[in-house]
Amino acid sequence: MEHATIHINTSPERYGNWLREICQFTQNQFKSDEQLVFINAWNEWAEGCHLEPDKRWGYAYLEATRNAMIKALEQNKTFMPLSMSYYFHEHLYLKRKNILCNIFKIKSLKSDSAFLIDYSKVIQYLYVNNIGIFDYQNETPLYIKNDHVVELKNRKDIATLYDLTFAEMTSDIFSFVLLQFNKSEHTTACIDTIQSMNDKRIRIIVVDNCSSLQHRKVILKQYKDDPYIKLIFNKKNQGFSRGCNIGYHYARNVFNSRFIAVINNDTLIKDHQFINKTLQIFNEWTFSIMGPDIEVPEGRHENPLNDYIFSIFDFNHLLQIRKKEKEHFLQNKHAQFKSFGTSSYHKDFIINPILQGAMLIFSPVFILTNENAFDEHSFLYGEEYILAVKAFIEGDLLLYTNKIQIFHKEGVSTSQLKLSKKMMFGYESSIHACKHCMKMLEPNASFLNNSNVFVIQPHDIVKARDPMKQHVLLDLLFCQGGIHGGGEYGKAIFKAIAARQKECENIDLWVAMNPNLSIDSWVLDLLRINQIKVLHTTGFQDIIQWVNSELFHVFYTPAIVVYTSGYEYQKTIGTTLNFTCQKTRIIGTLLDIRDFEIASIGNKLLPYRKLVQCLPEANCNEIELKQLISKEKEKARQLKDMYSEICQSKSIEKLITISNYTYRSILTHFPYIRNKLEMLYAPMKDRPSPMPLNHFNIDFEHITYALILNASRMEKNAISAAMAFDEIFSLDSHPFDQNFFVIFTGLHSLKEITNKKLKRKRRFICLPYLPSEQIEFLYKNMEFLVCASINEGFCYPPVEAMRYHKTSIVSDLTSFPEICGDAAIYCNPYDIQSIMKAILEVAGQKIPTEVIQKHYAYIKNKQQNDLEVLINKILEYTFRSTDKV
């Protein structure tokens, strides 16, 4: 081979850099239909030229290929990025994608047409009502009406589609709806700024929400003869949502408005180009609802409330925060209303955020299909959350822009309420809004719908049951609705027993799940491929009823504690365990008794949390702190009774716990269950390939970071680690450069967990709860992990970090020394200086790779062996039950 090309010192990193550059070159030099890159080769092993995974590099070349393509797409000006919200609501993205594929009669949607997903509602409306024709030619989506053909290549084309179809149906009226409750002087000031635009398209509707006679007279006298202003007087206060809807109805149905801006009466619009800018942005984006940059007197920017639509998990997190704040307010009359979310107000545009309600601009796309602007479930506060979720589910495009600004005096109407009444309105409305949003999202998060999984309704159990087989019921309900260690443990058990089922022809495996709660796609794949029966359940009480019916030979649950009536971890204490079966054998994992252990050390833990300014302890005086300690003592007593109920249950055949530490702890308090209790290490969790966090605007290529996971959970003790880092960053000399950060997951802001004002707060990055793929990415690219937890039954994160040969800083308490061995650096979680010392030690010298590899191999082998023992035990009890059921 005279002209052969030979590359030496190749690596996945160099290959990825080359591929990214060649993709960019191709984009710059060729037309879109000629932008092809061929890679040599998939599996030319003999030539040393392959992408296929191997022992040396694993999946690194494939990951480099994916990352290079993502970078190339992001830098391609014609590529339309998806809304960040789709990362948290993938089911909606897939649902809309499938709808569009059906409408255009194509198998898949190309990436440069992905922006159409944001307009699925208007496209579906036209399609269902036979308005025009949708087609797909030369890899381009088309809309055809009469003799007009619109190529749908970018967002502007959607505006063309809309004008072609609906322009003659609306006027050019731009209406403003103002809701007034007293404070008429602010209403007149707001109207003055609107009228100063001197635009004949403007109409104004003032809805007075039962103000005092004095304020009604002011606006009646000033505007009753103005033909461009409509005054509506409510006989009683209708609240925000209903009051605004009254004005929206008039603007929509009487004025036939093209745009409707619902604004607070204490806002000022100083930009005379407000309407023209709105029209220009609509022609570029074809939004349904838009929110501008909203500035308040102290310089804070209110919009957006969050950069993306919260997931069910986020809403539940916010719900718990508001409940705690409400309880604290009722007890101490101390008002808190912590901000929750990430607001990038400086950005030009954000797709599908949660918009703040001081001004919302509804476009003709929204007005056409919506009789109401707001859901009237809320009276005051929380309406923005409900509006955002409803619009997002239905396929409306929400848009934030800083190209338009308004000024908001803030709180004028609500300032007339007494503080106690205002705060209770805020807490109760926010709690209600969170619950309502979760209720709306749950049916749309159904991962079992259209997945070809064999779902059985409870009344069909007997009919679906083969009397010639042994029946095993496995609890997957505990594993749904969010990512947590116990749930990952349960899914690992399911994966192993599903694999073994193939070898056992006489065993029929059933799982109990809620179709409206999410679960990993690989779980659904296993259910479908193995034809495993899925029992449709709405709660743990359903499962208890089925187990007590004696229709199953064995029932296994990865968390026996959730079957005590009313139990919810760290929230409510369970009471009775209502299993009464005598034939069905129950095997349950008692992961740990952590909540009991934590409550038992309340006299040590709570004063420490107050010292480091953790919430809610930081807001307590000495008397209140003593009351909290007393409550923890009583809580410990009740939890001990609950665990005693589990240990003494005659229906439970076997209890499994997950570490030597938890085994010893359980026997210390309940020594009489020695013969029933067995220790088997928690299995290795399913490990997906890392997925970059491109949508969080963090330049991972140019920063280094330490990682702290699940920071919102009290037992993780994240604030102690944060304080230790903050002290180090404040030293005159420290080993971290200016591009080193600390990343927390499970938080939108450190204000959720502390009152402490950190001196170097720019160093701390908060991220919400993330999918497993993105956690893997954080593991792989971090400098080190910090787990200063006060209690862990089996500490998964340090073990997962070992996979990437990463050093972990861990507590010297509970299960950490047993699980981490010599592959971690230890600290006292109650001592900031100890945590600082560990951080500086890691910064100076990390644990050698060979030490981490050796310990990881030991733990992994132990996990695999113990998993086999557990699966054998479940199968053994199944066959021993032949004569019982």
TrEMBL record:
All copies of domain Glycosyl transferase family, residue ranges: 755-845
Entry keywords, A to Z: Transferase
Membrane-crossing segments per the record: none
Any Pfam family: Glycos_transf_1
Glycosyltransferase 2-like domain residues: 180-347
InterPro entries (UniProt xref): Glyco_trans_1 (IPR001296), Glyco_trans_2-like (IPR001173), Nucleotide-diphossugar_trans (IPR029044), WbsX (IPR032719)
Keyword Cell division: no
Molecular-function annotations in GO: glycosyltransferase activity
Protein name as catalogued: Glycosyl transferase family protein
